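Exercise 3.2. Students should predict the tertiary structure of the chain below and write it as structure tokens, then compare their answer with the key that follows.

Predict this chain's 3D structure.
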Amino acid sequence: AATDYSIKKKLGTQNDVEESSRDKQSPKVVPKSIAGWNNLVENRIQEAIVAGEFENLRYHGKPLPTDPNERNPYLDRTEFLMNRIVQRQGSAPAWIEFQKEVNNEISLFRQRMRESWLRYASANKIDPHSRNISWENDQKSYFEKTIKKLNSRLRSYNTVAPYVVRRGYLNLKLEFGRMYRNVKRLWLKPNGYTTFNFWLVKKFYNREFLKFK
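Answer key:
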């Protein structure tokens, strides 16, 4: 039995070498026309059928699974296919992680803007509901630099994200307005505005204001 195995092993090795030698000696045919490529593909398919490579397929005789996003008119076909490939490999598309990072950075920026404004309003006994041009001018340079960096991040994100989830760029004037509105919402009651109380500023400083994104 050991001798038979040894002979088969030697013959198998010799056959492998001969097949490899023939492959190296045989010229590689590169089709020069569409018809040539079609014939090459058809030949490869027939060879695979003969070799049994199409047997025991996972969805043989069964309907293929469908993806609801496949017919989404707002999702580019290429983006859909690439995302599906990545998802089947067990990981999320790269742009999703990028999106989380950018959203966190923007939330942190808005949080710091609120904190800066509340410190200023509390120290100077200013109603935090109202817009304050003096404070805005003092902070303008710092916030503009921060927004410039965030917009650069958004630009990078938009180059890899699908069209429907891309984000617009930040604008300092709009961010000031957004911050004032969030402050006003906190003090608004059904019967009107509450009386400004500096104790409330200190009370909500590290809690309620941080909830607004």
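Discussion points: Residues 94-211 form one domain. Residues 94-124 form the longest helix (31 residues).
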